[in-house]
């Protein structure tokens, strides 16, 4: 009971208006009142126990803000809330399922990492595999590690010393006949100890970015990058996104990765290869 509220009061005074509560959504254009920053929502994440929203302005620059009060939506002040729960759809994660479509193991803690490993070419490959198959891999105790290129794959495999109970699965970009990648893979598989303990698989794309289905990004097909031009730079330029620095490349990839929700957002040619590697490492 608030005793200090007893006594004469001005009943004609207007009550303080409650701001509309609006769940944040990707693509929503907001203005931060304090700084005047205006941008579209590109991602929402939880950091330090609080929700943070990233707003990208028309020049492709991004800044992060804490959710709550202090935002304008279409010129009107709002209270910005965490994202609303997603409704079930063909591309969303069904109840009791992981992003890879497998049955979620309730209450299962991550297993201690086993000696076997999945190697991928780079950081972006590792992040994509983690996003879709991460829950499954933690249950199995399998770690994904980026190689940062496969030119020295033979030496890396020799240093790993594969064998029974210490298997190695390698996912390679652009693994097509008569390519440099296919020659490297053949040489590795001919090395001592590789047979039965090493599996090298690959997808046909120049980069793992292309394993994201174009429709998920709202395009009919991936842009064609002229020969001799850096592929990732060319893709971002075709999208009209910043592309001049390593930071630009990283932010561009985060936009693409943010569009991936489940295995249904990826091409079958990648899905099959990753599942093949997981089976190889987990089936006795």
Provide structural commentary.
This protein has helices at residues 123-140, 153-160, 180-189, 231-239, 246-258, 268-282; strands at residues 21-23, 29-32, 38-47, 50-56, 62-66, 71-73, 76-81, 117-120, 143-146, 168-172, 198-202. The protein is α/β, with parallel strands linked by helices. Mean pLDDT is 83; it is low at 1-15 and 86-91.
Descriptive key words:
seven-stranded mixed sheet, 6 helices, alpha/beta, four-stranded parallel sheet, 284 residues
Structural class, by secondary structure, is: alpha/beta
Radius of gyration over C-alpha positions, nearest whole angstrom: 24 Å
Rounded average pLDDT: 83
Strand order of the largest sheet: 1-7-6-2-3-4-5
- Number of E-state strands: 11
Order of helices and strands, N to C? EEEEEEEEHEHEHEHHH
Helix-residue proportion: 25-40%
Unreliably modeled segments: 1-15, 86-91
Could you give a short account of the major beta sheet? 7 strands, mixed
Number of helices: 6
> Which descriptor suits the 3D outline?
elongated
CA(first)-CA(last) distance: 68 Å
Task: Briefly characterize the structure.
The chain is 26% helix and 20% strand. The chain is of the alpha/beta class.
Describe the SSE topology.
Layout (H helix, E strand, L loop, with lengths): L20 E3 L5 E4 L5 E10 L2 E7 L5 E5 L4 E3 L2 E6 L35 E4 L2 H18 L2 E4 L6 H8 L7 E5 L7 H10 L8 E5 L28 H9 L6 H13 L9 H15 L2
Parallel strand pairs: 1-7, 8-9, 8-10, 10-11
Antiparallel strand pairs: 2-3, 2-6, 3-4, 4-5, 6-7
